[in-house]
Structure formats: C-alpha cells, structure tokens
Design brief:
The complex is a heterodimer of chains A (about 325) and B (about 425). Chain A has about 325 residues and is α/β, with parallel strands linked by helices. In chain A, helix 2 crosses helix 13, helix 3 crosses helix 13 and helix 6 packs across helix 13. In chain A, helix 3 links the parallel strand 1 and strand 2. Chain A folds into 2 domains: about 160 residues, Rossmann fold, CATH 3.40.50.1370; about 150 residues, Rossmann fold, CATH 3.40.50.1370. Chain A has 13 helices and 9 strands. Chain B is α/β, with parallel strands linked by helices and about 425 residues long. In chain B, strand 7, helix 2 and strand 8 form a beta-alpha-beta unit. Chain B folds into 2 domains: about 100 residues, Roll (Urease, subunit C, domain 1); about 300 residues, TIM Barrel (Alpha-Beta Barrel). Classes of the chains: A alpha/beta (about 325), B alpha/beta (about 425).
C-alpha cells in the first residue's frame, strides 16, 4: 500500500515520471525506459553527448543545500545539453541560516518560474517534502537526500552495468562498505532488485549495515572474501572519516585490512567482474590504486554516463522526450 | 445549578457500576444516582437515551503550551479541545517557558485554568531545575504549591547519579516521579524506530534498546531508592515485559501508553508523514501488540493523549527536522473506544484506562462517578460515526496523523464541575 503511494506520487496520470525522488515503487519497465532514453543521448564512444533542443526555454534550478560541485556540475551539463536555462542556488550557507524556512526558499525560487528543481539536501525525505509543496507542474529530481535516496546516481550505475554486462538477470552484485549511511546504496539495492538481478549482497561490519537490511532484499556478508566470491559487479562505497569519531569503526587501517579492495581479493570474483565506485574515492581506504586504475575499474565511465542518464530523467519528467516514446 | 442526566447508561468502572439510570447534580457535585433527592428541581435536563454516561476523562500527560509557547496552544484553546474530547482533568507537563519549576508558574496555570472553567488543569512539575537534568527542583515546595507529580518529560536524565538523588529526594516526600525512559546516547539523533522502515527510508533510527536500557536502569534505581515511579508513554514490547516482572516483584511502578502507540506502527511513517514523527517513535506491530496486551492485563494502567499541539510550521520541513508530537486531546476517547471494537478491552475496562486508571496512579480522587464526587461527566453516543477532520479541531494544533480516520462513538456532552462545557 505504501509503495503505491510512492508510485502515485512520483508518476503522472499516464504512468510517466512527474518527479524522480526514489527508485522505490517504480517498475522494471520504467527503469528500463530511463536506461533506453539515456542510451539515445549517450553518443558514440569517444564523442561527447549531443545537444538537443528538448528543453529549450525551460528553466531548471539546481537547489543544493549540501555542497557537491561534482553532482551539481553533471546536472548542469545535462540541463544545458537539453538546451534548458539553469539557475544554481547553494542554500546551505545563505538563506536557511538566516531563519528563512525551506518553504520560504522554495516560494522565492518558484517566483522565478522554474519548472524543475534538482534538489540535494542533508535530510532524508527533503526531496519528497519539496515535491509535495512545489507548485503544480513543477518537477522535482532528487539529487541526494540524507541517507534516503540518490536515484540518478543509482540509474547511472545501472547504465554502466548494462553497458558492460548486457542484461541484469544473471548478475550477482556486491556492495561493500558503509551501507548504513549511504543513500547511493539504498537506491542501488532497489534498482538492482527491480531490474531482477540474481543476488544483491552487502558487505561490511555490523556497525555499517543497517538494522533489518535483509528486508531490502539483500544477503548480508561480514567477510569480504566470501562476499566477493563469484560476483559480476563490485560496488565500493565511500567511507566518511567521521565514522571513526562516531565509534562505528576503530581505524582506517583496520577497515582497509578487512574491507579494502585489492587485486588479490578481487581474484575470488568472476574473472570479468567490474569494479565501481560512486566517488569521490579515498584511495587506500576503500580500495588500492591498482584496482581503481586497473582494467576492471569502470569508475571514470560512470562519471561520463551520468550526464546522459540525468538528461534522460530530466526530459522524461518534463515529458518532452523519451526513447521510442509518446512525448512531443 | 441543578442538572439531571436521564435515561443514560451510567458506566463507572471505579465502582463497577453499569446501570441504565439517572444522575443528578447540585452544587458542582453528583448528589444522587437513580431517583433525585427530595425537592430536587433540575434547571437543565439532559436526555441521554441510547448514550453512555461515564466519568470525565483524566489525561495523565498533556503539553498545554502556556506559558511560553502560545503559537502552539494556550490554556484557553487546549481546555476547549479537552472539553470536546470528554476530558475534564488534565495533567499538564512542565515543558513550558518558563518551565514549571517554581510555585509561581504552577499558580499561574492553576489560576488561568480556574478562570476558564473548562477543565481541571493539574500540574506535573519539573524533576530538575529548568529540565536540565543537573540540579534538583524544589520538590517539597512544588508539592506544596499543588503539583501532582514530578517529571523531566522528554528530557530524560543522562546522569544516573542525578537520577538516583532525584528519586531519593522525591521518595522523602512520597511524590510520584514520572520518567520518560530513554537513553539519549542510544537515541543518537534518531527520529524513527530503528527497523526495516528506517532502513529503507534512510531515516536515522532509535533502537528499542534506547528505551529498554533506560527502563532497566530506572527500575534498578526505583528498587534501590524506594521511590514511586511511573513510566510515561512506553513504546516497546521489552519495556512492557520488564514492567510486568517488576510489578510481580512488588515494585511500586506503573506506566501509561500514548493512544497513538496502540494504533500506529513504523509503517505509518512511509512517505515521510511528519504527523507520525513522535517521541518515543512508532515501533513495530509486535511492539504495538505487546503494549495492547499489557494494557489489557492491567500492567499498563492508563492511556494518555501525550498531547503536543504545534503550529503548522513545526511540521513543515523535511521529516527529521520537524517537531515531534501529536495533537491528541480530541482523539483520545475515539482511539480508546476503537480498542473495544477491536475486541481488546471491555467497554468498562476501556473507560477505566482513561478515567479512574490514570487518577489512581497519581492518587487523585477524580475519574469516578459517585454521590459526593465532583460532577465531571462525559456523555458519548456509541453509535455516532464520524470522520476526524484536522481542520475542525479546537486545539490550536491540527497536527494529527488521524485526519480522515473514521471513528464510532462521539462525545455529545461534557460537564465539568456540574457545568456543561461542551455540547455536540
């Protein structure tokens, strides 16, 4: 029942995307459509993404309450490739610290006739909150909210996986590290299960695995060698330094010894397994440089696919373009 | 003024009364049940045909916001809401500004409420000064000023030595201490139950152990100090189990549960509904059922509203940043009666949990109907079906997760001290 509420809220009456807040409640068909649409934007290898007039004259606002140059830049590039006008607001230090509420900020920016908000916020549920209060016709894309969701990152990871593996069904995927605090992991788990992979594993110490993780449809491993055995895809998560202060881990050294990815440990995975990381990476903490820069690593491709995937989501939310689609 | 309530079904759990009869009120008191006294002339007669006449409800925990937070509610608005909810006695919590830690604030609240004449407002005073958990409040002075118990509300003590001393000092005067069991370190900035829903929504969780660790500690200190303790708003199955064991071991310990904990679970937080942001958090179905069971077998002696009205802005933010609490006065009886429909409690037991139950826990003479008792009466029609509409609430706070819920059984009249304070 709750899932349906999510779905209805994100989708328009025709079942298309209205907002993109979470993978939760979206169908396999819709996720596939996002990937197909992204494919149509991603040009031939080695050539930049082409520019299309899909959102000419539309105003898209990047509303970032949390600093992230990298994510903001890919959204900005995606919007510009779609010929939209882009406004950038970094609200973290300005308005809200002066007592202006999130809703005040929203109303002010709406007055600039923005038709889409790309929102990043440090609180789980912030994108839902903004979507619920945005004016009718305004779409909200979640660019990361607290520990909750980062659905465009998850979709670009799915895009990367599909590029390399073709289909999802036979795959075993291991996600390693700080699952507890990771919005990326939550969205990846939902996407992988929706797309029908054989198995999703999460690997980490008890302190970094959330309660009832199994309810998300994953197998929990505490031993990296067991967790990586025979997997097709390894996703390493970023470890924040403050986890040590929060008594979740004793030290980076012990973490790397137990959960850091080395070529040696990768040997138990499938011979053609790929290694991913949503970035930014701590070399020598999550993985050694030989792996990050090695032949199995697809980390840099992830970044370049990010633009095409975000173009797909933006254009689908604004109903202007869709692969093989009904859009104008 | 003389009032007769005729043709109703009088249910008074305290005396075991369940009779179709009449009730007569003179000079703010019940003067007769059945036939009126000789030469009694009713100035007003309420025909309660088909309705239930029970004691006015006693709500053991309500934050009434005045003084200090009048944007959220005032004694005027909240006593009006109470009257609509059939509540005639409110124990207001000390989380006001200034905090209820001086006779002046108690006097202010009592005086204001007496003028309003809509409900009896009693005070639970602060256990520590300014609720800061460091210095003991002037307990004997506060008791002399009229407080009925001591509590640090949702600011549980983190220093166990201060808690020990507070319980010892309160025990000197036989004052009941109402504790919110929560280990603040284990709470760790959480906002929902640490479980499957928190995991999926990525909301920081509060483990059940945040409560059970505190219950264990509080029980140990109660045993050590001999203090009379009462747990406020329990939320976990583990707490209910420990409470039952402690009572079996003859410890002087009691507890209440908030009405919403008996009906909602962590699943209701789906979609980040800030009206379900409460403290302690909504927990699992297993916890809810254990709380219901503890209520049914009497381990938990009272249901309270845990009323916390808020202005709209307090709930208009991303979930973790919203204020906790539900405006609960106007749904207390409805949620309690629903437990009867669901087969958990008999009608008489359900009424007991919101009348003589809470009154007895604090040694108060209210929540009962008998000749000579104050004429605090709630009359409700068990057949009326209604839908809760937040916009129609009389409380200043319209923050309720029960908006749109259908209920059966509605208050038709509330009398406080013999005076009609609400009529549907």
């Amino acid at each position: 029942m709750a899932g349906k509420r999510h779905q209805n809220f994100q989708l328009n009456e025709q079942g298309g995307l209205r907002h993109f807040l979470t993978i939760d409640g979206l169908s396999r068909e819709l996720l596939t459509r996002i990937l197909d649409t992204a494919e149509s934007f991603a040009a031939l290898p080695g050539r930049p993404v082409k520019k299309v007039p899909a959102l000419r004259g539309r105003v898209i606002t990047n509303l970032f309450f949390e600093n992230s140059t990298r994510t903001r830049t890919t959204f900005e590039l995606a919007a510009k490739r779609l010929s939209a006008d882009v406004l950038n607001f970094n609200v973290s230090t300005s308005a809200t610290s002066k007592g202006e509420t999130l809703l005040d900020t929203l109303r002010n920016i709406e007055a600039m006739h923005s038709e889409m908000f790309v929102v990043r916020h440090n609180q789980s549920g912030a994108a839902h909150f903004i979507a619920r209060h945005a004016a009718p016709g305004v779409s909200v894309i979640n660019a990361g909210d607290g520990r909750h969701a980062h659905p465009t990152q998850a979709m670009l990871d799915m895009f990367t996986i599909r590029k390399h593996k073709g289909e999802f069904t036979p795959l075993r995927v291991a996600i390693v590290g700080d699952i507890l605090h990771s919005r990326v992991a939550r969205s990846q788990i939902l996407a992988l299960n929706t797309l029908g992979v054989t198995e999703v594993r999460v690997v980490g110490p008890h302190t970094l695995i959330p309660t009832d993780a199994r309810a998300m449809g994953v197998h929990v491993y505490h031993d990296l060698d067991q967790g990586l055995r025979d997997v097709d895809v390894v996703i390493m998560l970023r470890l924040q330094r403050e986890r040590m202060a929060g008594a979740l881990l004793p030290s980076e050294e012990e973490y790397f010894r137990l959960y850091g990815l080395t070529n040696e440990r990768l040997a138990v995975a499938k011979p053609d397994a790929i290694v991913m990381h949503p970035g930014p990476m701590n070399r020598g903490v999550e993985m050694e440089s030989e792996v990050a820069d090695g032949p199995r690593s697809v980390i840099l491709q992830q970044v370049s696919y990010g633009i095409a995937v975000r173009m797909a989501v933006m254009s689908m939310c604004m109903q202007t373009y869709e692969a093989g689609g009904e859009g104008a | 003024m003389n009032v007769s309530i005729v043709n109703g079904r009088i249910i008074d759990p305290a005396s075991g009364t369940d009779l179709h009869t009449d009730l007569h009120i003179h000079a703010q008191q019940v003067v007769a049940i059945g036939k009126p006294p000789e030469s009694f002339q009713a100035h007003e007669t309420i025909d309660a045909e088909g309705q239930i006449v029970c004691p006015g409800l006693v709500d053991i925990s309500a934050s009434l916001r005045e003084p200090g937070f009048t944007a959220k509610g005032s004694l005027a608005s909240e006593t009006q809401a109470a009257a609509k909810g059939g509540i005639t006695t409110l124990i207001c919590t000390p989380d006001t500004s200034p905090v209820i830690d001086s006779p002046a604030v108690i006097e202010f609240i009592h005086r204001t409420a007496r003028k309003l004449r809509r409900a009896r407002v009693l005070t639970a005073a602060a256990l520590t000064q300014d609720l800061e958990g460091q210095q003991l409040s002037n307990m004997a002075t506060l008791r002399a000023a009229g407080c009925v118990g001591l509590t640090n509300v949702r600011h549980p003590l983190s220093n166990t030595l201060v808690e020990r001393r507070a319980l010892e000092y309160a025990a000197t005067f036989g004052i009941t201490v109402m504790l919110s069991p929560e280990d603040r370190h284990l709470r760790a900035g959480g906002c929902v139950h640490e479980g499957a829903v928190a995991t999926r929504l990525g909301l920081p969780g509060i483990p059940s152990a945040a409560e059970t660790v505190a219950v264990a500690r509080d029980l140990a200190l109660a045993e050590h100090t001999g203090a009379r303790i009462h747990f406020r708003t329990l939320s976990t199955a583990g707490s209910a189990r420990m409470l039952k064991e402690a009572q079996a071991a003859q410890l002087l310990v009691s507890a209440d549960v908030a009405a919403h904990q008996l009906h909602l679970t962590e699943n209701d937080v789906e979609d980040f509904d800030a009206n379900c942001h409460v403290s302690p958090p909504l927990r699992t179905l297993t916890d809810r059922d254990a709380l219901r069971q503890a209520l049914a077998d009497g381990t938990i002696g009272a249901i309270c509203s845990d009323h916390q009205p808020h202005e709209p802005d307090a709930k208009e933010a991303p979930f973790p940043e919203t204020a906790t609490g539900i405006s609960g006065l106007e749904s207390l009886l409805a949620l309690t009666l629903r437990l009867v429909d669901e087969g958990l409690l008999s009608l008489s037991d359900a009424i007991a949990r919101v009348t003589c139950g809470p009154a007895d826990l604090l040694g108060l003479p209210y929540g009962r109907i008998g000749v000579g008792t104050p004429a605090d009466i709630c009359i409700f029609d068990p057949e009326i079906c209604w839908t809760l509409d937040a916009a129609e609430m009389l409380s200043e706070g319209h923050n309720t997760p029960f908006h749109g819920w259908d209920f059966q059984g509605a208050v038709t009249h509330t009398l406080f001290n013999g005076r009609l304070v609400y009529r549907r």
